[in-house]
């Protein structure tokens, strides 16, 4: 199971890659493996400003639908539209082509609340 060391993580199994004041967000390798085959990703919050831990979308697998929780407060500025036709990218490349949204975050202090790779590995028992 892959847990890249250059990312931050949430206990809700999302990852965050920070570039300046933009955060790219997706679900972890662990999350996609637990969900199984992803068949649909829905994000209708582009151009909206949400608080940390608010639901920004859903991911649908063959057996279940799960909410996606925003790891940082801010404005959702982009959705990975390739997931509309190829949601399986979340399974095949969760940290690359399977990213979900980009957020212009508004509170850099919230980054300190995220887990590093070791903290995330401990939270999933890896």
Structural account:
- The protein has 126 residues and is an alpha+beta fold.
- It has a single domain (8-107), classed as OB fold (Dihydrolipoamide Acetyltransferase, E2P).
- 18% of the residues lie in helices and 35% in strands.
- The protein is built from 4 helices and 9 strands, in the order βββαβββββααβα.
- The chain has a 6-stranded antiparallel β-sheet with strand order 1-2-3-9-8-5. A 3-stranded antiparallel β-sheet has the order 4-6-7.
- The longest helix is centred in the last third of the chain and has 8 residues, at 117-124.
- The termini are close together.
Structure characteristics:
126 residues; alpha+beta; OB fold (Dihydrolipoamide Acetyltransferase, E2P); six-stranded antiparallel β-sheet; three-stranded antiparallel β-sheet; 4 helices; 9 strands; 18% helix
CATH class: Mainly Beta
What Rg is obtained from the alpha carbons, in whole angstroms?
13 Å
Strand sequence of the main sheet, in spatial order? Answer: 1-2-3-9-8-5
What is the percentage of strand-forming residues?
Answer: 25-35%
- Output the CATH topology: OB fold (Dihydrolipoamide Acetyltransferase, E2P)
The overall strand count is 9
Count of runs of 4 or more consecutive helical residues: 4
- Largest sheet features: 6 strands, antiparallel
Order of helices and strands: EEEHEEEEEHHEH
Helix/strand-derived class? alpha+beta
What is the number of domains? 1
Low-confidence stretches: none
Form type:
globular
N- and C-termini, Cα separation: 8 Å
Q: What's the architecture in CATH terms?
A: Beta Barrel
The residue fraction in helices comes out at 10-25%
């Amino acid at each position: 199971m892959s847990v890249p060391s250059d990312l931050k993580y949430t206990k809700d199994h999302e990852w965050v890659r920070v570039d300046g004041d933009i955060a790219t967000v997706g679900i972890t390798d662990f999350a996609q493996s637990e969900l199984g085959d992803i068949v649909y990703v829905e994000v209708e919050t582009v151009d909206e400003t949400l608080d940390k831990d608010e639901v920004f979308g859903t991911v649908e697998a063959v057996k279940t639908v799960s909410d996606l929780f925003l790891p940082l407060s801010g404005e959702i500025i982009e959705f990975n539209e390739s997931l509309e036709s190829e949601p399986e990218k979340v399974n095949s490349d969760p940290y690359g082509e399977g990213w979900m949204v980009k957020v212009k975050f508004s509170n850099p202090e919230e980054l300190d609340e995220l887990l590093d790779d070791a903290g995330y590995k401990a939270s999933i028992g890896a």
